[in-house]
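Subject: Sanity check before I submit

Could someone independently write out the structure tokens for this chain? I want to compare against mine line by line before I put it in a report. The sequence has 226 residues.
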Amino acid sequence: MLAFAQPDADELDRGATSVAAGSERFCALTREVKPVAELMRFVVGPAGEAVPDLKRKLPGRGLWITATRAAIGEAVKRNVFSRSFKREMKVPRDLAADVERLLTKSALDALSMAGKAGNVVTGFAKVEAALSEKGVLALVHAADGAEDGKRKLNSVLQRNNQSQNGEIALIEAFPGADLDLALNRPNVVHAAVLAGPASETFLARVARLMRYRSGNSPDSTSAAAP
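---
Independent answer below. Compare away.
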């Protein structure tokens, strides 16, 4: 059952310790109460800057904005941060892009952890073989990878999903250079993400990133890049 929060007059929460799982908060831009999974928390930094709190754990009272690039960009335009915090705030005009970079890094960090745990397979042949087995959570393609290889592995993925009545996520959110760095391997074009705690974290963070980019609701968002 969700915990409901009535919007305070000053639009701020009572601190990170009040953010319970499944709770809801007031979006200072849209004036709607939404689940925290659909929102981004911001606090005031030491220099009076707006600091995105991706993990919802930073100290101090927080302001919540719908977690999409469009909403945060609009909040900057409307001076929502200074108004809600009731003080002059240092808010960069490209805050929405800064948040996207942080979300991207967060997802790639989780992919790196999954790789270190032995839960990521790379290389066309190894990925193709992995897709024929159980335990694959996601098929990852470099966004700038060759379309022919993607089509071939996507066909294997489709057959796997049909035969096992499962649903393996398809992710094309990152360029190959980012995948190389995350997995500490050269020329990563295709990867299979196997079951494991870090892999689950990766999928959750990718879904959050894609919601941010697309603006779609959590229920309708795919992990595949738009």
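---
OP: Matches mine. For the report I'm noting this point. The two ends are 32 Å apart (CA to CA).
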